[in-house]
Every structure is written in structure tokens, then in C-alpha cells.
């Protein structure tokens, strides 16, 4: 009887140990897979800025001037292509479809070649021609379902503030270990068409 | 090397001597605590090589 108890305790301890090791391994594997779903993840870099603002203070900004895009292309041969995303963090935009009003968690304005650098899975439509139309939009599957109740919505329209946008494509929801979580993507050209936005981004 | 080149470029184009640029691999951003870990920030600028 006593041996059975010890056997049970040993087996229980061993099982818990194996389970803990397995979960730890899966967690670490998941952490190291963040953003690796992009095919070119090993050759994509972000440009950071370090600003010495006086009085010995230093600011670390994970962004840089929009003007760099042209300069990089022309003067740094190591760069194959560069892409820009602008995320308006000051407000959570609201979308309107008929009587429905929805808040978007994250909105990104992306440059023309964003989809050449980063990989997305399209469930409806494609990225082709996206940036050439100022008022086109790409939604995640989740946002499409919340706003329209379906994902086959290419050509449908909705409003952001007072501006009407046309759905250009729908992308799959992001993997759980993605740094990008923009539910709505709009052309950077649209953002720059708004008063003073381009001038500010060139700083 | 590329960090220095970018810094030189931005200083040359903007005349701003108080800015230094550096590059960070996409796959390291999540673990970074200095420039901002996880999530993307306003005006992020990426490139591939």
C-alpha cells in the first residue's frame, strides 16, 4: 500500500514536471516566433531615432522622418526598399455603417509598397491598386465581420468621420504573436492629403 | 556602419546635429525596452536589405 502511494506521488511529480517543461518550451518558442510570419522578417529593419534634447536628456523614438524614404532609396545602396506606417495614436477612430458606429482599436496609414515588404493573407480582394485610390480601405476579417457581418465586402462603403471609404480588400486576422494589430489600413497618401499632415511628418 | 551612414544623412539633410539614427531588426522589436517594445509606434519606418 505504501509503495503504491510513493509510486503515485512520483508519477504525479514526473507528469507535472514534464507538463511544465513542455509549456515553457512552447511559450519560449512562441515568443521567438513574434513577427516571423513575414517571409522577409530576417532582412527587415526599423529605423530608430535617438534625440539629444539638452540638459543631458535623451529621448528614444521608434520612428523617423518621412523624408528618409526618398533619401534611403537614392543614397543607401544597402536598402532594397523602404516602407512607412503612420499610426495615429491620438484618437481611436470610429467607423459608421448605416446606423452602426464602431470604434477601431488600431488604424495604420501605410505607404505604397507596404505590402512588398510585409506579408498579409487576403481573404477577399488583393492589395493591387490600394494606394492609387485615396479613399480605399483594407480591413481585418474581424473588423469586417463586426461592421458588415461578413467578409465578402469588396466594393462596400463605410464612413470614417465625414469621409466615405470603399473596402478594397479583407485580410486574415493577425497571428497572436504579431507586433502589427491594425484592424484598418488606409493609404498614407490619404493621410497626407489632410491639412498640415505631410509637413509635420517631414520633421 | 549603417547607423553612422544614416545619422550622417539625416544630419546632412536636416542640419540637425542632435539626432542619431540606428537600425533594429524587426524580430528584435518585441524584446526591445529602449525604443519601445511590442506594438508599432507612430511614423515607424522600415526597410529591407
Attribute tags:
heterodimer, A: 203 residues, alpha+beta, 2 domains, nine-stranded mixed beta sheet, two-stranded antiparallel ribbon, 6 helices, 30% strand, B: 49 residues, 2 strands, elongated
Helix and strand run of chain B = HEE
The number of helical runs of chain A is 6
Number of domains of chain A: 2
What Rg of chain A do the Cα atoms give?
23 Å
Fraction in helix of chain A:
25-40%
Strand content of chain A: 25-35%
Mean pLDDT reading of chain B: 70
Give the number of DSSP strands of chain B.
2
Low-confidence stretches of chain A: none
DSSP summary, beta strand count of chain A: 11
Tell me roughly what share of residues is in helical segments of chain B.
25-40%
Overall geometry of chain A: extended
The helix-strand sequence of chain A is: HEEHEEEEHEEHEEEHH
Mean pLDDT of chain A: 88
Number of helices, counting only DSSP H or I runs of 4 residues or more of chain B: 1
Q: Indicate the multimeric state.
A: heterodimer
Shape of chain B: elongated
The portion of residues forming beta strands of chain B comes to 15-25%
Which structural category do the helix and sheet elements of chain A fall into?
Answer: alpha+beta
Describe the structure.
The complex is a heterodimer of chains A (203) and B (49). By secondary structure, chain A is of the alpha+beta class. Chain A folds into two domains: 32 residues; 121 residues, no CATH class. Helix content of chain A is 31%, strand content 30%. Chain A has six helices and eleven strands. Chain A starts with a helix and ends with a helix. The model of chain A has no long low-confidence stretch (mean pLDDT 88). Chain B is built from one helix and two strands; from the N terminus they run αββ. Chain B is elongated, with a radius of gyration of 12 Å. The interface between A and B is large, with 54 and 34 residues. Strand 1 of chain A pairs antiparallel with strand 1 of chain B, so a sheet runs across the interface.
Amino acid at each position: 500500500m505504501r509503495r503504491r502511494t510513493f509510486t503515485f506521488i512520483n508519477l504525479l511529480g514526473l507528469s507535472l514536471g514534464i507538463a511544465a517543461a513542455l509549456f515553457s518550451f512552447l511559450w519560449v518558442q512562441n515568443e521567438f516566433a513574434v513577427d516571423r510570419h513575414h517571409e522577409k522578417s530576417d532582412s527587415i529593419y526599423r529605423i530608430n531615432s535617438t534625440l539629444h534634447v539638452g540638459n543631458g536628456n535623451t529621448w528614444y523614438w521608434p520612428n523617423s522622418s518621412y523624408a528618409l524614404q526618398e533619401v534611403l532609396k537614392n543614397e543607401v545602396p544597402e536598402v532594397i526598399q523602404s516602407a512607412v506606417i503612420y499610426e495615429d495614436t491620438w484618437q481611436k477612430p470610429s467607423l459608421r455603417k448605416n446606423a452602426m458606429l464602431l470604434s477601431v482599436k488600431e488604424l495604420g496609414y501605410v505607404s505604397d509598397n507596404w505590402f512588398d515588404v510585409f506579408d498579409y493573407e487576403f481573404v477577399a480582394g488583393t492589395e493591387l491598386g490600394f494606394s492609387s485610390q485615396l479613399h480605399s480601405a483594407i480591413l481585418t476579417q474581424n473588423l469586417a465581420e463586426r461592421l458588415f457581418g461578413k467578409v465578402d465586402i469588396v466594393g462596400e462603403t463605410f464612413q470614417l468621420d465625414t469621409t466615405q471609404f470603399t473596402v478594397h480588400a479583407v485580410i486574415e486576422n493577425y497571428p497572436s504573436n504579431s507586433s502589427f494589430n491594425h484592424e484598418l489600413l488606409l493609404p498614407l497618401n490619404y493621410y497626407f492629403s489632410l491639412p498640415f499632415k505631410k509637413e509635420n511628418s517631414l520633421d | 556602419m549603417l547607423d553612422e551612414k544614416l545619422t550622417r544623412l539625416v544630419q546632412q539633410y536636416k542640419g540637425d546635429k542632435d539626432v542619431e539614427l540606428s537600425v533594429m531588426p524587426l524580430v528584435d522589436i518585441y524584446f526591445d525596452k529602449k525604443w519601445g517594445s511590442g506594438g508599432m509606434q507612430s511614423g515607424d519606418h522600415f526597410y529591407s536589405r
